[in-house]
Amino acid sequence: MSLNLDKSTWKRVRLGDVICRSRKQVDPVASGVERYVAGGHVDTEGVTINRWGQVGDGQMGSTFRYVFEPGQVLFVSARPYLRKVGVPDFSGVVADKTYVLDAVPENGLLHEFLPFVLSSDRFIEYATAEATGSMNPRLLWGQMQRYEFDLPPLDEQMRLADLLRAIERHRRELVSGNATLHAFRSLFVDQNLPLGAGMTSLGEVASISSGITLGPARRAMIRTAPYLRVANVQRGKLDLSEIKDIGATEAEVQTKSLEFGDILVVEGHASIEDIGRAAIWDRDDSPLYQNHLFRVRANQSYRPMFLLEWINSARGRAYIRTVAKSTSGLNTINSTALKEMPIPIVTLEKQDRLLRDLSVIDNGLSALSSELASIMRLRLSNSADIFGGTP
Predict the structure, then answer these.
(1) Tens digit of pLDDT for each residue in 45-77?
(2) How far apart are CA 157 and CA 87, in angstroms?
(3) Could you give the CA distance from residue 304 to residue 295 in angstroms, rounded to a whole number?
């Protein structure tokens, strides 16, 4: 939906003429500064900053000396394509590559409008094109000041800023609600997974096999097939944004392919928290899977989704951590350890009851995700109407 803006009264301005940069420096430890903001604390999707580090935590570099106050705009000049712009409601320090900015209202720019200027597609495209350096490109201050854009009158800036801030508030509420519901889901699973009358093992209720091994010889094979990698398997969900092909024999296509309802478990990962993460294949096509994934195929006495919830639960993850081995910085589990994972003996009726309850929560999560996607599309569309760029 277009805003149908009349831009006849808008004036072309140079960014450096309507903003100023604060370069105030302190020794954060000697001055008693409590918080610092690094690039990782600034989200790419919003214009508010809700995370920080504690001065003295051992993670803060020596260049974190530039003071910011509540309400000032922080722009991370390194890798500007990441779109890291935000406004904190607390004071602290940043490093030299994060600019501390204020609008100059007497020159025509409302401070509340500034973060939306800097997060617009048009500015980010400019910043990315003008950044210098190949490994860690950075938008230098001089080049940033040369950016030109069309600026509405102050009263119209206020109306547009109010609109964009309302969208941002709603986005934050959706993100917060999504995080809260995810946390509730995890707690619900841990508290309601039935322990049953006894325990069995995963190997007793499912067949477990490793996938296809990669190697240079596969490039010469005539037949190819899509296959899933560790990157495709997240905890509780699949990321199918990139699926690669691999050379394979007819026998491998028959024995190393997936079926609807198969569970994929990550065999090795640098992070102990990510080893053993699992997702379910819920499609009708049958790709292969690589040898750093285990395929778990449930028998008729267990629902695949129930086993997935158990593997990803706090108890399942705790078991994985106890049996994992670490070699050269890589945490791994073997098929024997996975087969020995304790599984509660639970009737299909109780499994179905839990899964029905979880489906209600998952429907809520799906609704939140859909609304968040809609609000992001609205924000992009409005930003394109105001500042230019592709909606």
Answers:
(1) 889 999 999 998 988 989 999 999 999 999 999
(2) 17
(3) 12
- Please state, in angstroms and as integers, the Cα–Cα distance from residue 350 to each residue in 194, 286, 355, following that order: 8, 30, 9
The pTM (predicted TM-score) of the whole model is 0.80
What distance in Å separates the CA atoms of residue 323 and residue 294, rounded to the nearest whole number? 15
Structure tokens of 389?
A: 């760029």
- What residues contact 181, with CB distance under 8 A and at least 6 apart? 361, 364, 365, 368
Q: Which residues span the domain enclosing 335?
A: 200-345
Q: How confident is the model at residue 135 (pLDDT cuts 50, 70, 90)?
A: confident
Q: Cβ distance 76 to 136 under 8 Å?
A: no
The predicted model gives 249-276 an average pLDDT of: 92
Average pLDDT, rounded, for the chain: 93
Please check whether residues 19 and 142 belong to one and the same domain: yes
pLDDT at 196: 67
| AA letter at 223 | R
- Burial of residue 36, with CB atoms counted within 10 A of its CB: 0-12 exposed, 13-18 middle, 19 or more buried: buried
CB 314, CB 190: distance < 8 Å: yes
CA 318-319-321 angle, to 5 degrees, is 65
User: Residue 155's pLDDT is what?
Assistant: 94
Per-residue pLDDT tens over the stretch 180-232: 999 999 999 989 887 767 899 999 999 999 999 888 888 888 888 999 999 99
CATH number (domain holding residue 305): 3.90.220.20
HSE, CB side, 13 Å, CA atoms: give it for residue 83.
Answer: 15
What is the C-alpha separation between 314 and 312, in angstroms, rounded?
7
Instruction: Indicate whether 124 and 261 sit together in one domain.
Output: no
Residue 366 maps to a domain: no
Whether 170 maps to a domain, the answer reads no
